[in-house]
Structure formats: structure tokens, C-alpha cells
Amino acid sequence: MAEPAASSESYSGMAGLAVSLRGVTKVYDNGVNALGPLDLDVRKGELVSLLGPSGCGKSTALRLIAGLNAPTSGSVRVSRGVGQSRAGHSIGFVFQEPTLMPWTSVRENVRLPLKLSHAPTAEANARVGDALIQAGLAEFAEAYPRELSGGMKMRVSLARALVTDPDILLMDEPFAALDEITRFRLNNDLLSLWRNLRKTVIFVTHSVFESVYLSQRVVVMTPRPGRLSAEIRIDAPERGEEFRTSAEYAAYCREVSHALAPLQSGQPGS
Amino acid sequence: MTSLQTPPLSAEPAAPGSHALRLVRVLLPIVVLAAGIALWELVVRLNNIPPYVLPAPVAVFRTLIADWPVLSQSLATTLVTTFEGFVAAAIGGVALALLFNQSKWLEYSLFPYAVILQVTPVIAIAPLLLIYLPQQTAVVVCAWIVGFFPVLSNTTLGLNSVDRNLAGLFQLYGASRMQTLRYLKLPSALPFMLGGLRIAGGLSLIGAVVAEIAAGSAGAGSGLAYRIAESGYRLNIPRMFAALLLLSAAGIVIYGLLALTSHLVLRRWHESALGKEN
């Protein structure tokens, strides 16, 4: 596979855009046509959900943006923050599984990105400490991942993604495996993080309710190969329990479900 | 009686029950061993079997004590050989696995030969080695040949079992080859590596014994296997048994030590080292 750097370029002149995909397709080595062509723009500071049935290429799109895979064709542009030289620094990635190193403590797991970039020890310590407090993990710093619940592990994963202070946070169905109560709590945590830090967040999910609750914009994708099927803007400034139980929320959910419905039978709608 | 005792036993909380179970698991084999030895002693005494046909356990223990100066020296020799072979196998196996992991070309070129070395019975190679190498070296090489393969194949398996997403994470953060190896691949491979070492420990002993037996008539080897062969020629059967006893004790201790090491290294994080309750 080609080096991702060849096709995922960075442009400073992407006025206001954090991520821009143009005609991106991905055909895997085994011949599976996973994605596209897909056009997608994400503004800086925006929280966007990619919603679609399993295997619609949502995760593939995320991996392309992260530079973990190279697109078969098309261009992937990711804006770079000021003074950041390495592309990896401006992107944080949260996987569906917590993806922690089981052999070391929470603290060392969160420190990993800094260790890999040879950050000075004192600075790394401070940042790790901040990230742990931010994620509510301060008292679990020396615990091992197996000693934590699923929700706590996900918090560690989130803290690790945020420790480098990235501009863009990519989340691949991060809360899909959690129980609903934990998921609600983490959704709220994510929203308050996003409000405070103003990161660009691209959130992949297969939950209509989650996508409406979290995002400013829901991008509905078709099954394989994943294409853009519908875009729904969620214009609700206040998010919280009140929003979750409002008629407005229900209406948005209905709208998104309708956009998703024709896709269930395998016929891409438009 | 038993039907009366059963209800209170099952009504007991789980913890003492599992404790009793553990005690039973330790005690049962000991009881079986004691019964076996007693039966053996009895059969020998009742039938008046002469010691050069089958020595009684008491006679074996007496020989063990009487011949301790000779046997202990042989034990030390065999243990040193085993240890050298084991260390060579551990270093060689891990080093080869790392090389293979870094270069597919090396792996493709050399792995078949590692397999050939493994599948060829060491007892057949030993005489050849004894021709070309000094005896002590040949014996260590034999121990190495049988020991290194499980380390190599297990470590290779471990290095290839890295979590894909974690590997992606390392890629995302631009980790160098060395960093990926040190912080990701080696820790992932550690449980597998320790499993390989545990097998290699026992095999090194076998390799050492095989080589000693092959070398037996050729030189002045004084390992336990040599003592067994020598005692066989002299019809000193009690000493054969005593030496055999020491060999299996050595094997048990080696296995126990390696299992303990593995447990201590992995106890905080690996599934294999955790109790069922956690």
C-alpha cells in the first residue's frame, strides 16, 4: 500500500475548512469497493456525524482522513494547525474499542502519543496530568486497563486522543459497545469538551439518536460503496437532557431516520 | 455419612469451597505418589525381588544419599549444560524472531532451515555434532537445537499478534520502527515469548540428556545421563533410579521456575495470569 502522505495533503489555503474530501474512493486489496466517490467538507470547529448502516465505509472514510490508509483516487485534504509540523499531531483518533495497551498503566497509555513524538518529559507530565483530570481519570492514573469498566477505558482512549491537543478529533463509533447509561454520560462529556475546546470532531456512528444529539450536522451515507446520501443540519444551540426529551429532538430523529430508511433495503436514496 | 455431610458443604460460601478444592488438588497427587511408593516397596519386599532387577524405593533413597557426592556433581554438570543451552535458545530464538519480523526476506530464506533443524531428531544429530565439536560445546549445541524453536515460533506468533488498531495508532503518531518494536511489538509478544521459554526449559534438559547419552562412551562426560548409562552397564540399578529421580526433579524445578517467572511478569495485565474471579 502506498504511503498515505502521498495523497493526504495539507493545505493552508482551505479557508475555514478542517477537512476536505473530493471524489475520494477506496477499493481494498481484496476488491471490495468500500467508499465513494465521496465529497465532504468539514468546517473548523464543527461537530459532524457520519451516519450509516454497517459496512457503509464510514470507518474507511475516517481512516483515510487520519492518513492510516491511502485513498484509491481523489484527494484528502486536512488543514494543519499553526506551528504543527507533523500531520499526526493535529489529529486525534478514538477507535471503536478502547485500544489501550494492556501491559501498562492508564497514565502511560495517555502519555503514549507524547512519548512517540519525543516530547520533553516535564511538558509531557504536565499535559498527561491535565488530560487525566479533564477526563475525570486522575485517581485511576496508576490503574491498569483491565481494572477499569468499559466506559472508563473509553475515557482513557479519549484522554489519549486529546493529550496532543489536536485540531481534529476523529471518533469511530467510540461508544457503540457501551451500555446506554454510560453512553449518555459520555455523550454529554464529549459535548462539554467540544464546547470548551472547540475542536473539529468527526463522529462515526450507526445510532440515529446519538448523531442527532451530538452533532451540528448529520451526514447520512449509503451502503457499500459509501456515498453521501443526505445531509441534515441540527440547529439546536442547547444540548442536554432537555433537548433529548424535546419534540424538536424527536422531529430531527424522525427526519434522519427517514433519510436512512430507503437505504435499509439496499437502494441508495438521494 | 456422606449424605449427611453434603448439605453443609454445599451451603458453604464459595471462597472456602474453592480453597478446599485447591487443597484437594495439591493433596491428591501426593496421596497417589505415597500410595504408589508404598505399593512398590511392598511388591519388592513380598516377592523378594533382587535390587539389580527392581530396587525398592528405600534402597533408591539410600543410594541417593550414599552416592550424593558423585550424583550431585553430575547433577551440577547437567544443570549447567541445560542452563547454557536454555540461555542460548532464549537469546537465539528471540533474536531470530526479531530479525524475521524486521525482514521478510530473511524470514523466507531461513525459516525452512529452522524447521528442518527442529524436525530432525536431535538424537540423530548428536553423534555428528560430537565428531565436529568439542564435547562440552556439542552438548550445549544439542540443548540449544531442541530449545530454540519453540522460542522462535512463539515469539514470531506474538510479534504478529499485535492489535491492529494499536498498530494504526502508532502509525498515526508517526512512531519509528524502533519505537513500534519497543513499545508495541515486544510487550505484545511477551506472553507468547514466555510460553515459548517455558517449553524451551524442559526441552533444553532433554537436549542435554540426549547429547550426554550420545557422548557417553566417547568421552569423560559426567552428567546425570552419563551416570544412568554407566550405572546401566554396571548393573547398578538403584543408582540408575536415583539419577533418574534427580533428572525429573530438575525438570520439575525448571518448569516451576519458568512458570513462576511468567506469572510474576504477567500478573498485572495478562488474562493467563489472572484469577477467574477478576
What's a concise summary of this model?
By secondary structure, chain A is α/β, with parallel strands linked by helices. Chain A has helices at residues 58-66, 106-116, 121-134, 150-162, 180-197, 208-214, 241-244, 247-264; strands at residues 8-9, 17-27, 33-43, 47-51, 73-78, 91-94, 168-172, 200-205, 217-221, 228-233. Chain B has two domains: 1-48; 57-273, Orthogonal Bundle (MetI-like fold), CATH 1.10.3720.10.
List the helices and strands and how they pair.
The complex is a heterodimer of chains A (270) and B (278).
Chain A: E1 8-9, E2 17-27, E3 33-43, E4 47-51, H1 58-66, E5 73-78, E6 91-94, H2 106-116, H3 121-134, H4 150-162, E7 168-172, H5 180-197, E8 200-205, H6 208-214, E9 217-221, E10 228-233, H7 241-244, H8 247-264
Chain B: H1 2-11, H2 14-47, H3 57-66, H4 68-102, H5 104-119, H6 122-132, H7 135-159, H8 164-172, H9 177-215, H10 224-233, H11 237-266
